[in-house]
Task: inverse folding
């Protein structure tokens, strides 16, 4: 009897990719490159993992959390893309992987979560479309908070190095975030190593190809308000864009088989209650922000009125109305969901019983 397929719990599709997370995308790529029989469960819920992070690989009762652990597990089952590499090449691959996991990942976080317009007009709406609605309130802000904490040092803007294209610096102003300068250096190193080869170490794909594709595919997304990484790849490293297109065409030609189960359908009411019980602070913060948004709008209106008169007053009230409407709608939807799913029930049995007795008494009186 053949073994059941492995099941990958992953963040779901966004940004025109099978996943918006580079590590989930890297594991999907590895499984496809290695010819593993697997199914996808785009549960989008990191709380299913013992580490609080996706991806998670399931093999029957076993659950392997973390992208590197998942790949190591698949290798141990006989699907080792690196078996033909020499010890020196394996050590070299680890060094490149470290560069990618740190520098390129930081650049991606900066683009998606710290660039304000990219987040508000691109990433936040993309997450809203793919996440279960119960996670839309908390998870994007959690992701953004982690990104800000991680990339704090790379946020400062520095003078663009010599030779930096004015088409890449913001409005040709000669300033660029330091995190982009570091990403450009890694692009150059990786591009030089890749050269004209089909894959990183020759004609056969290896683990480093899966990792590199997972990150570069997201860097290649062209539709952010400020697509700095895409511009860098387009104007200076077109061979890396070709590399991404080549791997995508070879290993993502068909949709993955979807797993079935409660987590695939989205977050159930019992999972919501469990999360509310275990992490009430996150929901309190969200509700607090929802309440404070209108108050902040009033403050901005008052400050604007003192500075700009009637125009600022009108703008402040418009923003206040929008914020208040959004808050009222969110609270109404949440209460409706709780009532519909009977998360909280009120028993009117005694009242109904007494009411029925009264009605019967009235009927009997009437008959007499």
Result:
């Amino acid at each position: 009897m053949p073994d059941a397929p492995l099941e990958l719990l992953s963040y779901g599709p966004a940004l025109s990719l099978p996943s918006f997370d580079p590590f989930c995308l890297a594991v999907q790529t590895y499984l496809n490159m290695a010819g593993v029989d697997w199914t996808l469960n785009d549960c989008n819920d990191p709380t299913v993992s013992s580490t609080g992070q996706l991806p998670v690989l399931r093999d029957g009762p076993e659950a392997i959390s973390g992208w590197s652990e998942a790949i190591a597990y698949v290798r141990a089952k006989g699907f080792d893309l690196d078996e033909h590499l020499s010890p020196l090449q394996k050590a070299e691959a680890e060094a490149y992987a470290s560069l990618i996991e740190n520098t390129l990942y930081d650049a991606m976080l900066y683009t998606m979560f710290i660039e304000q317009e990219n987040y508000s007009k691109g990433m936040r709406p993309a997450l809203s479309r793919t996440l279960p609605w119960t996670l839309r309130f908390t998870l994007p802000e959690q992701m953004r908070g982690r990104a800000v904490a991680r990339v704090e040092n790379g946020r400062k803007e520095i003078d663009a190095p010599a030779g930096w294209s004015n088409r890449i610096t913001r409005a040709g102003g000669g300033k660029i975030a330091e995190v982009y300068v570091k990403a450009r250096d890694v692009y150059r190193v990786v591009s030089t190593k890749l050269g004209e080869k089909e894959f990183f170490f020759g004609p056969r794909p290896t683990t480093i190809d899966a990792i590199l594709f997972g990150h570069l595919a997201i860097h290649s997304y062209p539709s952010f308000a400020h697509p700095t990484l895409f511009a860098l790849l387009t104007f200076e490293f077109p061979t890396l864009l070709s590399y991404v297109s080549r791997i995508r065409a070879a290993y993502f030609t068909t949709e993955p088989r979807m797993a079935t189960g409660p987590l695939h359908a989205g977050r159930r009411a019992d999972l919501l209650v469990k999360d509310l019980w275990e992490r009430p602070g996150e929901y309190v913060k969200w509700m607090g922000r929802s309440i404070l948004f209108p108050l902040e709008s009033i403050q901005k209106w008052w400050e604007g009125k003192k500075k700009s008169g009637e125009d600022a007053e009108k703008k402040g009230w418009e923003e206040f109305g929008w914020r208040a409407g959004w808050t009222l709608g969110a609270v109404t939807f949440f209460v409706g969901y709780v009532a519909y799913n009977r998360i909280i029930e009120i028993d009117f049995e005694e009242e109904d019983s007494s009411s029925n007795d009264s009605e019967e008494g009235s009927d009997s009186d009437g008959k007499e």
